[in-house]
Amino acid sequence: MLLGLAVSALMLLFLGENPVTAMGTLFGSLFRDSYTFADVFVKATPLMFTALAFALTFQANLFNIGAQGQFYIGAVTAVWLSLLLQDRVPGALVLVIVGLATILTGGLWGGSIGWLKARFNANEFLVSMMSTYVALNIMNYLLRTWLLEGKGEYPQTDPLERVVWLPTILPGTRLHGGFILALLACIGIWVLLYKTPLGFRIRAVGQGRDAAALAGINYKTLYVAAFFISGALAALGGFVEVNGAQHMLVQGFNPDVGAAGIGIAILANGNPIGIIFASILFGALKVGGTIMGQLAGIPSSFTEVMLGSVMVFVILGYFVREKLDERREKAKLKKAVSA
Amino acid sequence: MSETPFVELRNISKYFAKVVANQDVSLEIRKGEVLALLGENGAGKSTIMKVLYGLYRADEGQILVDGEVQTIHSPKDAMQLGIAMIQQHFALVQAHTVTENIILGLVRGRYDLRHYDRVVADLAAQHGFDVDPTAVVSDLPVGIQQKVEILKALYQNAQLLIMDEPTAVLTPQESAVLMNFVQQNTRAGKAVVFITHKLREVMEVADRIVVMRGGRVVGDLPKRETDELELSKLMVGREIHERTYVEDKLPDHQAVGLELQNVSIRDPKEDVYHIRDISLQVHEGEILGIAGVSGNGQDALCDALSGYRRLSEGKILLNGQDISNTDARERIRLGLGYVPSDRQRFGLITPMKLTENMFLKRSYERVWRRRALIDQKRLDAYTAEKIRAYDIKATGPDAVARSLSGGNQQKVVLAREVDLGSKVIVFDQPTRGLDLGAMDNIHRTILNEKRQGKAILLISTELSEIFGLSDRIAVIYRGEIVGIYRNHDLDTQKIGLLMAGYTPGAVSETR
Lengths: 339, 511
Known about the structure:
The structure holds two protein chains of two kinds. By secondary structure, chain A is an all-alpha fold. Chain A has one domain (34-299): Orthogonal Bundle (ABC transporter involved in vitamin B12 uptake, BtuC), CATH 1.10.3470. Chain A contains 13 helices and no strands. Chain A is globular and about 75 Å long. By secondary structure, chain B is of the alpha/beta class. Chain B folds into two domains: 7-236, P-loop containing nucleotide triphosphate hydrolases (Rossmann fold); 256-352 and 410-510, Rossmann fold (3-Layer(aba) Sandwich), CATH 3.40.50. In chain B, helix 14 runs parallel beside helix 15. Chain B is elongated and about 75 Å long. The relative contact order of chain B is 0.10. At the A-B interface, helix 8, helix 9 and helix 13 of A face helix 10, helix 11 and strand 18 of B.
């Protein structure tokens, strides 16, 4: 990760900027006021959900690359139900109904990927990736038809009424209850994975499928279960983003939460508690990067470059670590044999 | 021999991440000779040949071809030196015709397929192969596909043909044709390496035999100077020492714990039986040993018992209850313990803690839960108790299984399965790769469980183990039980012949 920051700094040099001051601005600006500081956590919130989505399936040795799509499915469900119910049902009740409904739709969306894997041994990597495009286009279609705003001008929905917003938890900032929900989700998934029989089975299948199968654990059912939970998590991310931060649905919003989630999950080594911190770090980079763009005259697209290079190095680091481990084992073996 | 051998391997070693696959292997392959590479599964036969063929790179050692040191980085390099290898799983493009497969990678630009069809047809006729060059590979039976592979090697004028278990997928008639070809081919001055674990084939086709065990060469003998008995001893390992078996009362009057009735597993695609028509009974308080050279259906038998694979035919009864159609989970619940031979793949989840490995087969049991969560306290206490009882060398219940030595890992599996297998325990190669101390420890556990009145099935390729523990011994050969004997009715010679595929009748005549 540090390597990623270093490379970004190098690139800043090429842009003719002083990397030290730029980085200074990046992190310094975060603390200039409570609004900016709180925004770090606002940005981190959906990332925690998509990272959890990737991490959970990753523990079962499955790859859910489609958190982006599941996120959109959740967002669409949330905005549609909220608009439908906001005038008829009390706000708090709407939020509960919407939350449960997104779990269901996202879960079914994700679960179907798991089912395809279990039933036909379809490659879940590809299926989940492609399902993102399906979800994206469903969202775009709905935004131009059923969900199109009253004015009919832009592909976006009408804003949600205040009663169905997730309540703000820090007055004067955008920080909303979704962040608490995300924290709870991280802790909940940690408990699920490490404290319950179901989570144990998910990890057992992920780390030793053959031994798990001999132990009577049906990995096919678990594939579906893991993908269901994973899809539901990503969809919840869509829900909190819509009802907490955006308060409407705009075409093509947050197009990188899925990819960033993967990076965060790998950075956290699949650990839900680690995801909390990794997400906040990514949130900080995002917010700080935007400000850096505004203040230091560095193109704002540079934030993306920076995030990208951090992520690439995080992922590379994972493989390098594995390779080093293997080499160490081999050297040990050689020594033992010659001794 | 004064002539330079075609290929010479000098002191080759190959390590994989966790295992030594080949250790200091040296051997020669001479022109005009069939060399059989004999050994049990996992002895390193295929690995050493894959090194020669450029699929693996040796960590140490040299390869000489025609007396010159060569580096072979890929099959392409090997091919240029005239070395071809036919893998156990064929490397053919299923959607292409025979000719297209043969010339694949050897033609450039525009080419006349008809012309090559004729070339291939001639080549096939020349070697007495009945292969249609225009047929699509996916339509061909396995035996013919193998011929296509051979033709491909011949077309490239390979001087050395390596065949990895070539008869595994063939019918006896097809095998005969193949043997015939192999002998013809070598008469023309070419060399063939035949990788196999079947003694009979070796005696039929080989000129010279290299025996491998545990990644090393343990014997290099001309066929004239050896016999099947010697080879089987070399292959299986140590000579059998004195018997440790103390005969208890034979438990014929006891109830039957485990019964197999005409059990078969057939490979649906290849129409080959992995095990065929196996019937046996294991009584309570009895150890039934299954002896055999590895690769004769032991794996399929274990899969059938554990519920890992479904039976094609037959029934399995546990205490008289038919469990043929139950899954692994239900069999565990009914009290079937199973100690698999590959403990790192099937017995344990090595990156997990010991507690988690103890919990592995119990994740559905209510008693291990408190509210919805795993009862960690109870699990820790239970694991700690087992660590004490079985004298497992580990830092504690939280130690990762991978950090334990092989013997201690096996004790963990044993501790779990002995508890789970309240009625029947199946042991598959329980002491494979373990030192004498650990071995003795495990043998004592097995005998102890027998005295508790459990029915025990012991599958082993170690004859000393079979003779040392079993009350009765069944011999498995090519997926079939060739006979079941009382321990004292068998001796080393007799069992050696049975394991090599002689019929019981022939065996008694040789006595």
